[in-house]
Amino acid sequence: MASRFLGKVAAMVERHRTGFLIVSCAGLLGANLAFHTVPQKTFKPLYQAWVKGQPELSEKLHNLFREVLSDLQVKSENNYQAFAAFSFHPVSAGVPWLPAGCVVGIPISFDETADDEHGIVNHVVMVEGKEVDWKSPEGLALKEALILSLEAQKFAIAREVMYLQNNGPLIHASVAPICLAGTYVSAVAIKQLLGLYSGPVVFRGLYNLAVAIIGFVGYCLSYDTVSRAVDYRTDRSTATISTDFAKGGVEFYNKILAQNKTLRTLMGKKGEKIYAPNGNLFPRYWFRLKHPSCTSRRDLIISILSMSQE
After folding, report:
1. DSSP3 helix / strand / coil % (the chain, rounded to 5)
2. CA gap 150, 258 in Å, rounded
3. From CA 242, how far away is CA 54, in angstroms rounded?
4. What is the structure's pLDDT at 114?
5. Predicted TM-score of the model (pTM)
Protein backbone atom coordinates (compact mmCIF):
# COMPACT_ATOMS: atom_id res chain seq x y z
CA MET A 1 0.00 0.00 0.00
CA ALA A 2 2.87 2.32 0.82
CA SER A 3 4.49 1.65 -2.54
CA ARG A 4 1.21 2.43 -4.28
CA PHE A 5 0.93 5.74 -2.42
CA LEU A 6 4.52 6.67 -3.27
CA GLY A 7 3.85 5.80 -6.88
CA LYS A 8 0.87 8.16 -6.97
CA VAL A 9 2.93 10.93 -5.35
CA ALA A 10 5.73 10.41 -7.87
CA ALA A 11 3.25 10.52 -10.75
CA MET A 12 1.71 13.74 -9.43
CA VAL A 13 5.12 15.35 -9.05
CA GLU A 14 6.02 14.25 -12.56
CA ARG A 15 2.86 15.84 -14.00
CA HIS A 16 3.39 19.14 -12.16
CA ARG A 17 7.17 19.15 -11.98
CA THR A 18 7.53 22.73 -13.24
CA GLY A 19 5.19 24.02 -10.54
CA PHE A 20 6.91 21.98 -7.85
CA LEU A 21 10.30 23.26 -9.00
CA ILE A 22 9.16 26.89 -8.85
CA VAL A 23 7.62 26.43 -5.39
CA SER A 24 10.71 24.60 -4.11
CA CYS A 25 13.11 27.29 -5.38
CA ALA A 26 10.94 30.07 -3.95
CA GLY A 27 10.74 28.22 -0.64
CA LEU A 28 14.52 27.81 -0.48
CA LEU A 29 15.09 31.48 -1.23
CA GLY A 30 12.54 32.52 1.38
CA ALA A 31 13.98 30.18 4.01
CA ASN A 32 17.51 31.48 3.43
CA LEU A 33 16.34 35.10 3.60
CA ALA A 34 14.02 34.62 6.60
CA PHE A 35 16.88 35.39 8.98
CA HIS A 36 17.47 38.72 7.20
CA THR A 37 13.89 39.93 6.79
CA VAL A 38 13.46 40.86 10.46
CA PRO A 39 17.04 40.96 11.82
CA GLN A 40 15.97 42.88 14.95
CA LYS A 41 13.96 39.85 16.09
CA THR A 42 16.08 36.99 14.72
CA PHE A 43 19.71 38.07 14.47
CA LYS A 44 20.11 40.79 17.11
CA PRO A 45 19.01 38.68 20.13
CA LEU A 46 21.63 36.05 19.24
CA TYR A 47 24.55 38.49 19.32
CA GLN A 48 23.30 41.12 21.78
CA ALA A 49 25.83 41.95 24.50
CA TRP A 50 24.65 43.05 27.93
CA VAL A 51 26.87 45.49 29.82
CA LYS A 52 25.91 46.05 33.48
CA GLY A 53 22.43 44.80 32.72
CA GLN A 54 21.94 47.17 29.79
CA PRO A 55 21.96 46.24 26.07
CA GLU A 56 22.54 49.81 24.90
CA LEU A 57 25.41 50.78 22.62
CA SER A 58 27.78 53.36 24.06
CA GLU A 59 27.64 56.90 22.73
CA LYS A 60 31.22 56.55 21.49
CA LEU A 61 30.45 53.52 19.33
CA HIS A 62 27.17 55.02 18.17
CA ASN A 63 29.03 58.10 16.89
CA LEU A 64 31.68 55.88 15.31
CA PHE A 65 28.99 53.95 13.45
CA ARG A 66 27.38 57.15 12.15
CA GLU A 67 30.81 58.39 11.07
CA VAL A 68 31.38 55.21 9.07
CA LEU A 69 27.99 55.55 7.38
CA SER A 70 28.92 59.12 6.47
CA ASP A 71 32.29 58.03 5.05
CA LEU A 72 30.50 55.41 2.93
CA GLN A 73 27.99 58.04 1.79
CA VAL A 74 25.06 55.82 2.76
CA LYS A 75 21.90 57.58 1.60
CA SER A 76 19.34 55.87 3.83
CA GLU A 77 21.16 55.85 7.17
CA ASN A 78 17.93 55.15 9.03
CA ASN A 79 17.88 51.67 7.48
CA TYR A 80 21.04 50.78 9.43
CA GLN A 81 20.99 50.24 13.18
CA ALA A 82 23.92 49.38 15.42
CA PHE A 83 23.91 47.36 18.64
CA ALA A 84 26.50 46.11 21.12
CA ALA A 85 27.67 42.58 20.26
CA PHE A 86 29.60 40.09 22.38
CA SER A 87 31.63 38.78 19.42
CA PHE A 88 35.26 39.64 18.75
CA HIS A 89 34.45 41.07 15.31
CA PRO A 90 31.53 43.08 13.86
CA VAL A 91 28.56 41.06 12.60
CA SER A 92 25.61 42.04 10.43
CA ALA A 93 22.33 40.90 8.91
CA GLY A 94 19.46 42.29 6.85
CA VAL A 95 18.67 43.63 3.41
CA PRO A 96 18.86 47.45 3.04
CA TRP A 97 15.83 47.82 0.77
CA LEU A 98 13.48 45.75 2.94
CA PRO A 99 11.26 47.57 5.48
CA ALA A 100 13.10 46.10 8.50
CA GLY A 101 16.46 47.37 7.24
CA CYS A 102 19.77 46.10 8.60
CA VAL A 103 21.53 45.68 11.92
CA VAL A 104 25.26 45.78 12.59
CA GLY A 105 26.70 44.36 15.80
CA ILE A 106 29.76 46.22 17.10
CA PRO A 107 31.94 44.37 19.65
CA ILE A 108 32.04 45.98 23.08
CA SER A 109 35.84 45.66 22.92
CA PHE A 110 35.78 48.52 20.38
CA ASP A 111 35.11 50.79 23.36
CA GLU A 112 38.61 50.15 24.61
CA THR A 113 41.84 51.86 23.58
CA ALA A 114 45.51 51.09 23.99
CA ASP A 115 45.75 53.91 26.54
CA ASP A 116 43.08 52.39 28.80
CA GLU A 117 44.87 50.54 31.61
CA HIS A 118 41.78 48.53 32.51
CA GLY A 119 39.97 48.32 29.18
CA ILE A 120 38.82 44.91 28.10
CA VAL A 121 40.09 43.19 31.25
CA ASN A 122 36.88 44.34 32.94
CA HIS A 123 34.97 41.97 30.63
CA VAL A 124 34.77 38.23 31.22
CA VAL A 125 35.92 36.19 28.22
CA MET A 126 35.46 32.43 28.32
CA VAL A 127 37.55 30.06 26.20
CA GLU A 128 36.72 26.36 26.39
CA GLY A 129 34.69 26.97 29.55
CA LYS A 130 37.54 28.75 31.34
CA GLU A 131 37.83 32.44 32.09
CA VAL A 132 40.80 34.12 30.41
CA ASP A 133 43.45 35.27 32.88
CA TRP A 134 44.35 38.71 31.55
CA LYS A 135 47.62 38.72 33.52
CA SER A 136 48.94 35.54 31.89
CA PRO A 137 51.10 35.73 28.74
CA GLU A 138 48.23 34.40 26.64
CA GLY A 139 45.79 36.85 28.24
CA LEU A 140 48.09 39.79 27.56
CA ALA A 141 48.54 38.64 23.95
CA LEU A 142 44.78 38.30 23.48
CA LYS A 143 44.17 41.73 25.01
CA GLU A 144 46.71 43.26 22.64
CA ALA A 145 45.10 41.53 19.66
CA LEU A 146 41.58 42.68 20.58
CA ILE A 147 42.40 46.37 20.90
CA LEU A 148 42.24 48.07 17.48
CA SER A 149 43.13 51.52 16.28
CA LEU A 150 40.38 53.84 15.09
CA GLU A 151 41.25 53.11 11.44
CA ALA A 152 40.99 49.34 11.98
CA GLN A 153 37.68 49.73 13.81
CA LYS A 154 36.25 51.84 11.01
CA PHE A 155 37.37 49.30 8.40
CA ALA A 156 35.81 46.42 10.34
CA ILE A 157 32.46 48.22 10.64
CA ALA A 158 32.54 49.55 7.09
CA ARG A 159 33.20 46.05 5.77
CA GLU A 160 29.91 44.84 7.26
CA VAL A 161 27.99 47.84 5.91
CA MET A 162 29.53 47.35 2.47
CA TYR A 163 28.58 43.66 2.57
CA LEU A 164 24.96 44.64 3.20
CA GLN A 165 24.99 47.38 0.57
CA ASN A 166 26.28 44.91 -2.01
CA ASN A 167 23.32 42.60 -1.24
CA GLY A 168 25.59 39.93 0.20
CA PRO A 169 22.78 38.11 2.07
CA LEU A 170 20.64 37.99 -1.09
CA ILE A 171 23.53 36.64 -3.16
CA HIS A 172 24.20 33.89 -0.62
CA ALA A 173 20.51 33.03 -0.40
CA SER A 174 20.21 32.71 -4.20
CA VAL A 175 22.84 30.00 -4.58
CA ALA A 176 20.68 27.13 -3.29
CA PRO A 177 17.60 27.72 -5.51
CA ILE A 178 19.78 28.31 -8.58
CA CYS A 179 21.68 25.07 -7.96
CA LEU A 180 18.41 23.19 -7.35
CA ALA A 181 16.90 24.45 -10.61
CA GLY A 182 20.08 23.76 -12.57
CA THR A 183 20.42 20.25 -11.15
CA TYR A 184 16.78 19.37 -11.81
CA VAL A 185 16.68 20.68 -15.37
CA SER A 186 19.98 18.97 -16.24
CA ALA A 187 18.83 15.71 -14.65
CA VAL A 188 15.55 15.67 -16.59
CA ALA A 189 17.30 16.48 -19.87
CA ILE A 190 19.90 13.72 -19.42
CA LYS A 191 17.22 11.23 -18.31
CA GLN A 192 15.24 11.91 -21.46
CA LEU A 193 18.38 11.71 -23.61
CA LEU A 194 19.29 8.31 -22.15
CA GLY A 195 15.72 7.04 -22.31
CA LEU A 196 15.60 6.23 -18.61
CA TYR A 197 11.91 7.16 -18.29
CA SER A 198 11.02 3.92 -20.04
CA GLY A 199 13.77 1.93 -18.34
CA PRO A 200 13.71 -0.19 -15.17
CA VAL A 201 12.75 1.49 -11.90
CA VAL A 202 16.04 0.40 -10.32
CA PHE A 203 18.07 2.26 -12.92
CA ARG A 204 15.98 5.40 -12.45
CA GLY A 205 16.42 5.17 -8.69
CA LEU A 206 20.21 4.80 -8.95
CA TYR A 207 20.31 7.68 -11.42
CA ASN A 208 18.27 9.92 -9.13
CA LEU A 209 20.55 9.08 -6.20
CA ALA A 210 23.65 9.89 -8.24
CA VAL A 211 22.10 13.18 -9.38
CA ALA A 212 21.25 14.11 -5.78
CA ILE A 213 24.83 13.48 -4.64
CA ILE A 214 26.34 15.37 -7.55
CA GLY A 215 23.87 18.21 -7.03
CA PHE A 216 24.76 18.50 -3.34
CA VAL A 217 28.49 18.54 -4.03
CA GLY A 218 27.93 21.10 -6.79
CA TYR A 219 25.94 23.26 -4.39
CA CYS A 220 28.69 23.15 -1.76
CA LEU A 221 31.39 24.09 -4.26
CA SER A 222 29.23 26.82 -5.81
CA TYR A 223 28.28 28.30 -2.43
CA ASP A 224 31.88 28.40 -1.25
CA THR A 225 33.07 29.97 -4.51
CA VAL A 226 30.38 32.66 -4.36
CA SER A 227 31.06 33.28 -0.67
CA ARG A 228 34.78 33.82 -1.25
CA ALA A 229 34.08 36.10 -4.20
CA VAL A 230 31.69 38.19 -2.08
CA ASP A 231 34.28 38.44 0.71
CA TYR A 232 37.00 39.58 -1.67
CA ARG A 233 34.70 42.11 -3.32
CA THR A 234 33.64 43.48 0.07
CA ASP A 235 37.25 43.87 1.22
CA ARG A 236 38.22 45.50 -2.06
CA SER A 237 35.31 47.94 -1.98
CA THR A 238 36.05 48.91 1.62
CA ALA A 239 39.81 49.27 1.17
CA THR A 240 39.41 51.54 -1.85
CA ILE A 241 37.40 54.13 0.10
CA SER A 242 40.58 55.83 1.29
CA THR A 243 44.17 55.11 2.31
CA ASP A 244 43.20 55.18 5.98
CA PHE A 245 40.60 52.47 5.43
CA ALA A 246 43.18 50.33 3.59
CA LYS A 247 45.71 50.73 6.40
CA GLY A 248 42.98 49.89 8.87
CA GLY A 249 42.16 46.75 6.89
CA VAL A 250 45.75 45.51 7.02
CA GLU A 251 45.83 46.07 10.77
CA PHE A 252 42.43 44.42 11.23
CA TYR A 253 43.47 41.17 9.55
CA ASN A 254 46.83 41.16 11.31
CA LYS A 255 44.95 41.45 14.60
CA ILE A 256 42.63 38.57 13.64
CA LEU A 257 45.66 36.40 12.89
CA ALA A 258 47.14 37.35 16.27
CA GLN A 259 43.84 36.53 18.01
CA ASN A 260 43.67 33.14 16.33
CA LYS A 261 47.26 32.30 17.28
CA THR A 262 46.49 33.08 20.92
CA LEU A 263 43.24 31.11 20.83
CA ARG A 264 45.16 28.19 19.34
CA THR A 265 47.33 28.16 22.45
CA LEU A 266 44.46 28.68 24.89
CA MET A 267 42.35 25.91 23.38
CA GLY A 268 45.11 23.31 23.41
CA LYS A 269 44.69 20.31 21.10
CA LYS A 270 41.28 21.49 19.94
CA GLY A 271 42.79 24.82 18.95
CA GLU A 272 45.46 23.06 16.91
CA LYS A 273 42.71 21.40 14.88
CA ILE A 274 40.87 24.71 14.26
CA TYR A 275 43.69 27.22 13.77
CA ALA A 276 46.86 26.95 11.70
CA PRO A 277 50.18 28.11 13.23
CA ASN A 278 49.99 31.33 11.17
CA GLY A 279 46.49 32.13 12.48
CA ASN A 280 44.39 31.03 9.51
CA LEU A 281 41.40 28.75 10.01
CA PHE A 282 41.58 25.15 8.90
CA PRO A 283 38.64 24.12 6.68
CA ARG A 284 35.96 22.31 8.68
CA TYR A 285 35.47 19.83 5.83
CA TRP A 286 38.20 18.77 3.43
CA PHE A 287 36.36 19.84 0.27
CA ARG A 288 34.83 23.05 1.65
CA LEU A 289 36.36 26.51 2.14
CA LYS A 290 33.59 29.04 2.76
CA HIS A 291 35.81 32.07 3.34
CA PRO A 292 39.20 33.22 2.07
CA SER A 293 42.11 32.94 4.46
CA CYS A 294 42.92 36.01 6.55
CA THR A 295 46.39 36.16 5.03
CA SER A 296 45.01 36.28 1.48
CA ARG A 297 42.51 39.00 2.45
CA ARG A 298 45.25 41.00 4.12
CA ASP A 299 47.56 40.58 1.10
CA LEU A 300 44.77 41.80 -1.19
CA ILE A 301 44.48 45.01 0.81
CA ILE A 302 48.26 45.41 0.91
CA SER A 303 48.34 45.24 -2.91
CA ILE A 304 45.55 47.83 -3.09
CA LEU A 305 47.46 50.06 -0.68
CA SER A 306 50.66 49.68 -2.73
CA MET A 307 48.88 50.59 -5.95
CA SER A 308 47.36 53.72 -4.37
CA GLN A 309 50.79 54.90 -3.22
CA GLU A 310 52.49 54.49 -6.60
Report:
1. 65, 10, 25
2. 18
3. 35
4. 59
5. 0.88
